[in-house]
Amino acid sequence: MLTIGVDPGLERIGIGIVEHNGPTLRLKFDKLIKTSSKLTTPERLLVISEEMSQILSLYKFDFASVEKLFFARNVTNALLVSEARGVILLELQKRGIPIFEYTPLQVKQALIGYGKGTKEQIQSLVKIILNLDKAQEQDDVADAIALAITHINTNKTMQKLRG
Q1: Considering only CA atoms, which of 101, 87, 5, 89 is closest in space to residue 48?
Q2: Can you tell me the distance from the alpha carbon of 146 to that of 127, in angstroms, rounded to the nearest whole number?
């Protein structure tokens, strides 16, 4: 089974695709999508749409795990990220991929066991869980991979609870 994790943004979008067969997890693909600040917002959204479409055409996905946003301070940034997130959700929905959303707090609790974990702890655990040679250095990509792992583990737990 394949789960795509997406850490949305207008400038940087992290993508992590994790394959899971039983207890075994393997990183299948990761990427950092970047958009130029020289482009208008609609142009940047088009870049995101085209990049997502290309990535989503590579594999048949069973699930998508997308970061759920909450911003307390910067309303302008929150609106721009929400626009990018909307494009991402649309591309996933167009392909009928079931979408699950997790907050950063939920990801940290799922991977580290508490919600005050650091980026370094997330990167280290992703490396260990996926048996990678080195930790993913790009925060957005590491977060996307962590989102995929969070959904895989949450889904396994829910299946066990259902019997």
Answers
A1: 87
A2: 10
pLDDT tier, 161 (very low <50, low <70, confident <90, very high otherwise):
very low
Compute the distance between CA of residue 109 and CA of residue 26 in angstroms, rounded to an integer.
21
In the numeric block, which tokens belong to residue 86? 């909307």
- Rounded alpha-carbon distances, angstroms, from residue 159 to 109, 152, 156: 19, 11, 5
Domain ranges of the chain: 2-162
Q: Which residues are catalytic?
A: 7, 67, 140
Which two tokens mark 91? 């591309």
- pLDDT, averaged across the chain: 92
* 17-53 pLDDT per residue, tens: 999 998 899 999 999 999 999 999 999 999 999 999 9
Query: What does the longest C-alpha to C-alpha distance in the chain come to?
Result: 52
Class level of CATH domain 2-162: alpha beta
- Say if CB 50 and CB 43 are below 8 A apart: no
4, 37, 83, 103, 111 from 10: Cα distances, Å: 18, 9, 8, 18, 26
Please name every residue paired with 40 in a beta bridge, in sequence order, or none if there are none. Answer: none
Residue 158: pLDDT above 70? no
Judged by DSSP in three states, 63 sits in strand
The pair of structure tokens assigned to 81 is 């990220």
